[in-house]
Amino acid sequence: MRTQKRTRLIIAIIVLLTFTVPSQVNAKATPRRLDGKNRFEIALHAAFQEFEDTHKVILVNSNAWADALSACNLSDGEAPIFYVRSNSIDDDTFQWMAAHPLDEIILIGGEKSISKDVEATLRSQFSDAKIVRYDGRDRYEVSLAIVEAAPKKKTILATGTTYADALVAAPLITSQDANLLIVNPQNLGEEAVTYLCQKNGDLMIVGNTISDETVSAALDAHDASQEITVIGGSDRYEVSANIQKIFFKDPRSVIAASGEVFSDAVIAGPIAQKINAPILLVRKDSASPSVREGLFADSVKGLMVVGGDETIAASEGLFSEFYE
After folding, report:
1. What is the DSSP letter of 165?
2. Cα–Cα distances in Å, from 311 out to 83, 262, 288, 291, 304?
3. pLDDT grade for 29, boundaries at 50, 70 and 90
4. Residue 176: pLDDT above 70?
5. 172: CB partners within 8 A, 6+ apart
6. Alpha-carbon dihedral 291, 143, 175, 20, rounded to 10 degrees
7. Which of 103, 188, 254, 274 is an S-S bond match for 77, by CB 3.0 to 4.6 Å?
8. What are phi and psi of 320, to 5 degrees?
9. 178 neighbors 155 (Cβ within 8 angstroms)
10. Backbone phi, then psi, for 219, in 5-degree steps?
11. Digit-coded pLDDT (tens) for 88-115
12. What is the mean pLDDT of residues 294-318?
């Protein structure tokens, strides 16, 4: 069997112990907050603000965060993600779609996530648009179906058991020209392993839930040799800070999203791809030292906060440095 090449980046030890939060912050723009009365409205506002010129939209069930993050492979910063219910589309979302010359409407998930009736309505009302559905028996099959349809040489692996790692990895789909594949950390699955072996490209694991030893063993069983890089941290917040440190060294803009509530945060994925910005995770009322360092780095002139005050506290408090 071939020996896997593995690179473990212990940024929490090597880099983040040396962080210093700037005592004086250069002039910043007032933070922009992307909010709304619910997750459907926040997604709609994201489309109004960032994707008015799009010809493609992606629809996901409002409870299916894994499908939404897998869909970032298809957005690539060029299409918004809208939340829908299994049996209906909100009127405001439908009106936004009707007001734009859509060439493609992508449905993520099976008929339990987005029903046949919803699909039939879309085919009737948007007869000039191509309508495509990516589905599978579970979130892992859906994710695999998506990356198989739009393959890239590099692959990022993130757990399907919690949203945070996949969310902070979403901007790398565009900046690193990579696929994001959501997997079961306990059992990658034969189909996913076969896909990775056939691609034979570099692998990156984001977060601490997926073991690089597990991935290596699965690849070794197929006599495959691929370099594996691990981007970890002491928790999800430090993982997000490490992503910025490694891949967005001098960002002009950053996005702050909740590390506690997925529904608002997931909408940040396509926006981060579009503006080439890292996603930093915060708690409702605080940010860890490593995240604060990223938020208030000298290069950062713009901040977008995704979510309402109930998810992330008022900008004047948590992000007070932007007002100094």
Report:
1. H
2. 18, 10, 16, 17, 14
3. low
4. yes
5. 156, 178, 180, 204, 206, 243, 247
6. 10
7. 274
8. -60, -30
9. yes
10. -70, -40
11. 999 999 999 999 999 999 999 999 999 9
12. 87
Closest CA to 304 of 62, 50, 63: 50
Where residue 217 falls among pLDDT bands split at 50, 70, 90? very high
pLDDT of residue 10: 42
Tokens for 68, please give them: 């939404």
The pLDDT, as a whole number, for residue 24 is: 42
Whole-angstrom distance, CA of residue 222 vs CA of residue 46: 43
Q: What is each CA distance from 302 to 26, 32, 179, 252, 321, in whole angstroms?
A: 11, 8, 27, 6, 12
Rounded Cα distance, 182 and 296, in Å: 31
Provide the CA 6 distance to its chain's centre, in angstroms: 24
Give the model's confidence band at 321: pLDDT under 50 very low, under 70 low, under 90 confident, else very high: low
Per DSSP, which regions of the chain are E strands? 5-9, 32-34, 56-61, 81-84, 104-108, 130-134, 154-159, 178-183, 203-206, 227-231, 253-258, 279-282, 302-306
Q: Are residues 227 and 5 in contact, defined by beta-carbon separation less than 8 angstroms? A: yes
Q: How far is CA 231 from the centre of its chain?
A: 15
Per-residue pLDDT at 314: 75
Measured between its terminal Cα atoms, the distance across the chain in Å is: 58
Cα–Cα distance between 180 and 155 in angstroms, integer? 6
Determine what percent of the chain is predicted with pLDDT higher than 70. Answer: 89
Please report which residue ranges of 76-187 form alpha helices under DSSP H: 91-98, 116-125, 139-149, 164-175
For residues 188 and 196, what is the distance between their CA atoms, to the nearest angstrom? 10
The position carrying tokens 């890089």 is 229
